[in-house]
Design a protein that fits this description.
The chain has 265 residues and is an alpha/beta fold. 45% of the residues lie in helices and 14% in strands. The protein has two domains: 2-82, Rossmann fold (3-Layer(aba) Sandwich); 87-244, Aspartate/ornithine carbamoyltransferase (Rossmann fold, 3-Layer(aba) Sandwich), CATH 3.40.50.
Length: 265
């Protein structure tokens, strides 16, 4: 497990999951590797990939992850990059299944057009459900990722919509979700982002526009009274912490699937 970015849920879910599956997980921060002294990523990948069964990387640049995967003999799992957070979305979707929100759902994502938005785009466009994304102007998701999602949506029948008004996006939604407005590495932008995201906090008034039995999801950590009000967070705490627990189950599922693929190949 290689961590360039700090983590709570990703580290614990993978480390505990590996242990429960009978394996041994190695935690490696950037300071634990020769990468910090200038060793090329491809050389690190060629060494580690010969010694382990699989690798999980939580990093900043998507290109870092992809370069490692290119040179590693062991399969590589994305634990997060600035572009995507796929293992989180697997847990989110598992939570939707548990709460009965996986049958033709309308999902409303409110907030920054970040790696979580991109991952929701991939999930919805491949599984074929309705996704509404509400972002302030200037914070829209990456245009190339949107292009890919719309291509997948043509095959799956997904309906992808974009809004600048979060209240419009949330109308009659089955699932409402958000993420922090200030991700790791963006701390110097905090004051500007808080100003730019005025009106995007998911509060009780906004949630009332969703269906009466709508669930609320948050990948955590949550900053109360910024992207979500304290009232909404606590009212939906069961869903949010089921979602957090599902990181463990989803991560184990990914690892079991990968091991089976190796045996079958």
């Amino acid at each position: 497990m290689i961590f360039e970015k700090n983590s709570t849920r990703t580290r614990v879910s993978f480390e505990v999951g590996i242990h429960q599956l009978g394996g041994k997980g190695l935690f490696l921060s950037a300071n634990d590797l020769q990468l910090g002294r200038g060793e090329p990523m491809k050389d690190t990948a060629r060494v580690i990939g010969r010694m382990v069964d699989m690798v999980m990387i939580r990093t900043y640049s998507q290109s870092t992850l992809e370069e490692f995967a290119r040179y590693s003999k062991a399969p590589v799992i994305s634990g997060l990059s600035d572009s995507y957070h796929p293992v989180q979305l697997m847990a989110d979707y598992l939570t939707m299944v548990e709460y009965g929100k996986d049958k033709d759902p309308i999902v409303a994502y409110v907030g920054d057009g970040n790696n979580m938005t991109h991952s929701w785009l991939m999930l919805a466009s491949k599984l074929g459900f309705n996704l509404r994304i509400a972002t302030p102007k200037g914070y829209e998701p990456d245009s190339e990722i949107v292009k890919d999602a719309l291509m997948f949506a043509k095959k799956s029948g997904a309906k992808i919509e974009f809004f600048n008004d979060p209240n419009e996006a949330v109308k009659n939604a089955d699932v409402v979700t958000t993420d922090t407005w200030v991700s790791m590495g963006q701390e110097d932008q905090k004051a500007k982002r808080i100003k730019d995201f005025a009106g995007y906090m998911v509060d009780s008034a906004m949630m009332k526009k969703a269906k009466d039995d709508a669930i609320f999801l948050h990948c955590l950590p949550a900053y109360r009274n910024y992207e979500v009000s304290e009232e909404v967070f606590e009212a939906h705490a069961d869903e949010i912490f089921d979602e957090a627990e599902n990181r463990l189950h989803a991560q184990k599922g990914v690892m079991v699937w990968l091991e089976r693929q190796k045996k079958e190949s």
